[in-house]
Write a structure and sequence with these properties.
4 copies of one chain form a homotetramer.
Chain A (H helix, E strand, L loop, with lengths): L3 E2 L4 E5 L6 E7 L9 H11 L17 E4 L1 E2 L2 E2 L4 E6 L21 H7 L17 H17 L3 E9 L2 E2 L10 H7 L9 H16 L6 E8 L13 H9 L5 E6 L10 H4 L3 E4 L2 E4 L7 E2 L2 E2 L4 E7 L8 E6 L4 E6 L9 H20 L1
Antiparallel strand pairs in A: 1-2, 2-3, 3-7, 4-7, 5-6, 8-9, 8-10, 10-16, 11-16, 12-13, 14-15, 17-18
Helix pairs in contact in A: 1-3, 1-8, 3-8, 6-8
């Protein structure tokens, strides 16, 4: 078990879905960083559940409360601890889960690993709710990166059968990213949003859920950042991205599209542009040999359909060791992808900050 | 820079393509493990270059020489150091690379990162040759895993437009894996091999190269292994897999296929089978909530086309800062995928061993 | 900066002396451990300030509040987060410290390191108050160790010119340790306590403070525990012990006494005793070659006199860069040694737990 | 087990006393550092055994052979691997040790830890011979530090009853350190050397050995370096220093002398000197709150008498579980302290380099 990560910035995340509070400790932040609380709240609102997520940021709950490491909104250099109190944690619905694991959730492996002592209410420490502290930490990281001219933004690349417009991999603008990273439904094409919402509604109406893809870009990175071999930009970011529940794949640039391609078609040649070395294409997504190439960093993740659905499913009773049926009650997201966008941005921001410090 | 990885087993890899020797130190191996040298040589032969890789293991070069940590073929518990002497390292061909970076290689970012001091001959420390020590370490790890009933094997899932037969994700047999992990062209379907060889030849004849996919499976893992959040099985393995040059994507189970799917179709339900908890499907590739589910672990990687091709490419001269043309001479693999199979197995073996110790 | 430590048990400590709260996150605790709150409170009371520390545990303040990782007093395996709210934090007294660093405190180096952004009130994150979370975490660790038959206890070896009776290094009893680790003034000899209290009073009356030594023992450790070279029992424990403010030296067994000794006098010979391998003496303090020898572990630390004294001292004004005088107001410990005893036990407990898990 | 250390500079040490070779891998060295081979050889000669160690550096054996990471004597930024071949490794003398552990050596705990599989010949991986790679790595580190104006040197503070002159803690000169770090018997006072040699001879003649103390100083460190709490300068250096066999205590500045002192006597007050903040005394040995204070860093270590002596000792036979007598044959150092001086310098250099990078 380790909910701790990072080399220079060490992030320790704690909490359980229905416990008293969730939160995190960020160790190693530079001193003297002025935090923009509004920006932090905005990212947290993008991740927070709600009926209409395109509305103005409403943050009635999920208010991050900073306990240490900040004086007068400026970081002191000491560990920044933050908690979010859990409210409205009726756990009655989850009694049954103790015995009957929900398909495609962590319930069963966690039961085995922790000998049944894990807090299973709402998924416990494995809950998607635990991405809130990650978004908080990522929002702090983004502010430091912004000061260094680095911009991070992600869009919903695909939901089910509906795709968004594509990034121009070699010419992503910070402006576009700054639009995406403020939106609660981050897409490049306005049309895509409508179709995606319809796609989600289709599955919701059927007590089902749908998966998707998120693509994140980073501009402003100079060439030669990152370590090599076991410390590549790709390895570091993927370790963070797989910390997000439901993420099942990570690719850089053309990623799995490389499998069917050939070098003549996808090699990224060089040219001198404005007196500087530039790439003529960016199929490698800004990473070569594990190091940044100077082109925008492009990373994509695959998100599986929310496993919690209202339809009846087959499972087993771990006490009686008999087959049984399970219906997961409660309100569940028919598609987690839109809310996962700021989480992906946060994971990338934390990784990039740790790399460049 | 860090060519060191692992928590309990720390692997430190060193060497440059045209330096005196490459090798590794494996720290933290259990004492008392009897090493089967033949099996180690077999894996290294699978990775080694050669005209006909289906022939019996010939290992005229790339002989691993163990310096410490082993007495009478049994591990002592002290760090195991191994070197492979570099022979036949004519570097004349690479003089030009100092100034003109090869497209899609590490040359340019490494030049920036190391201020031109990096050893660029043959790619230096970034060379695919550095996967030889990884294969060695993985072969050692495999032997420890075998004693614990864990079997690892991978196959070429795709080369260009040609696909192999598929793993039965929920019922991969150790027997199949043991066939794959001894082959020098690891495919499930014999027909696929022929077609893949033809596909490769097509690109080779055109001074081009082609990409592909490798899929690796692990059987014998009990449920509940791995850590959570930043220490998931997925995060750990991906960090190791991205250490392999040319790997640009990593996915588990259905991976990017999840994007277009829905929960009803892909949720992995449970059933009691032979008195034990079993999964009815394994779309999650043996990992749920970052922990092993008890089903076979299935991980896939995307491999880009070898960037070194004999065709002329555009690049720049880093000294004169002018555009120029580059032709990479020397014999280069038109497809690195077959040789990368044992490297993928090795990375997975190292990750799994570190997780279960 | 890193207030995070540990391999298997990762402890992240946060907070500032006069901030809103201090606390810690303990990541990696085994699931299913029943916590004895009374024992935790007892250790925290031993560390807490107070007029008469031999009185029954009074814990009006410094109440640890567990936020996660524990359900019904049993650990869940998820990170255990704990906070202690800071109350009564009048900071008026410390305004001056921003500009005039207190001699022998962290003030000046921290000012340089954090560019003046560090929270200097009460010493901020460098305050001795931050040992409260360490004591909490150590108390949790002790409970796990107790179940494994491992006992930890420390005594005040020396305060100024007054020494306690000595441990019989090769025959420390768990009973003695269990008496010491419940006391608020831990000494072997009752007479020593009286003399030490008089010694402290002598310095207090003079607006001065006095240093001392603490010696900690661990029984119940089997032979062969620990790692080697950079992962010795000695190295691990010393890294934790130097985290305690005022600790300036760490020694094992005879420690600095070895300098004047010879092998014939201090070599620890072996004998068969009750059918098992035993040491005839334990000058090495239970550690040989960095590994436990099976004899009791004995570690001693040197504690410097509390630097905060009421007497006037020379310092400088960091703004005007002029010499000035400083009188540290507020109530300060004339001797920190008695309160540091449970902190030393906690640091050792955390180190040992991380080693044996 | 972990013979790997460091955050930014990762050092992996391997080898066994009577194996084929010992060596190390240094990962994370900056590129572009020109190595002065003579200086490296000098340090290795200071550590190497020999009749008259004051003679000119003779390095017939123990020649470090660099395998990677260096081209034309300049670091490439890739891992630097180095091996020293073991020659003259007659192991006949050690047959008996397999069964009869030498008192105060690692033999018995290592036997338990590694189940008898460890290479016991000459102490195996626990041998003092393994300090040769540490000295090598430290010599490389020293060269990088020298370029940054940082100087490291140590002296024999005490051997048995004989003490050297003392460092002026607050005014150590780089000149003195540069004399000490070139000497094969590093003392401040020439008279001390004579007396110390006589002291050693006294014990040698009696088939005995004697302990001592080494004190190391570092000049040129600015204030505010190091991390806090678990990452203090003291914690980092002590972890490295305890990696040296025979080191049983580590103290900073006045160290254990603080126990009998009071704040008025030992607090290090500030003054403005030459327009800068300076300390009026340096009892804290250059570290306050875990951070460098700007004064010279002063660290002392206690070294126990070499446990291998020619006199007969009591031990046990681990096979028959009976008491027995043991006489350790072979030539052994009657005092390891002079040879340990460059090892202490190396450990400190590695720690400081890791801290400042």
């Amino acid at each position: 078990m380790s909910s701790v990560t990072g080399n220079k910035i060490k992030l320790s995340v704690f909490g359980e879905s229905h416990g008293e509070a969730i939160g995190c400790v960020i160790d190693g932040l530079p001193a003297g960083i002025r935090l923009d609380t509004d920006k932090i709240y905005l990212d947290m609102a993008r991740r927070a559940p709600g009926k209409d997520k395109t509305a103005t940021p409403r943050l009635e709950k999920d208010i991050p409360h900073i306990l240490s490491g900040v004086v007068n909104n400026v970081t002191t250099g000491a560990p920044l601890a933050m908690i979010i109190e859990n409210t409205n944690t009726k756990s009655g619905d989850y009694e049954n889960i103790m015995k009957v694991p929900r398909p495609s959730h962590s319930d069963y492996p966690a039961y085995v690993k922790y000998g049944g002592f894990n807090d299973v209410r709402g998924g416990g420490h494995f809950s998607g709710r635990l991405t809130a502290p990650i978004v908080f930490a990522g929002a702090v990281a983004k502010q430091i990166l912004t000061e260094k001219g680095i911009t991070i933004g992600a869009h919903i690349k695909k939901i089910g059968a509906v795709s968004d417009a594509e990034f121009d991999m070699n010419d992503v603008s910070a402006e576009l990213l700054n639009t995406l990273n403020k939106s609660s439904f981050s897409v490049i094409s306005a049309e895509a949003e409508e179709k995606m919402r319809a796609e989600i509604e289709k599955y919701r109406a059927d007590n089902n859920s749908v998966g998707g893809e998120i693509e994140c870009a980073v501009t402003g990175l100079s060439a030669g950042l990152g370590g090599n071999m076991f410390d590549t930009v790709e390895g570091r970011l993927s370790q963070l991205l797989f910390a997000i529940p439901a993420v099942k794949g990570v690719q850089f640039g053309k990623g799995f599209g490389f499998a069917e391609s050939n070098a003549k078609a996808v090699n990224d040649e060089y040219e001198i542009k404005d007196g500087r070395v530039a790439l003529k294409s960016n199929n490698n997504g800004g990473v070569l040999g594990g190091l940044t190439s100077g082109a925008p960093l492009i990373v994509g993740v695959a998100v599986k359909p929310t496993p919690s659905i209202a339809a009846e499913q087959n499972s087993v009773n771990l006490e009686t060791m008999e087959n049984t049926k399970l219906t997961v009650s409660g309100r569940h997201d028919p598609c987690i992808v839109p809310r996962a966008v700021p989480v992906v941005e946060a994971a990338v921001a934390l990784g990039i900050l740790d790399i460049i410090l």
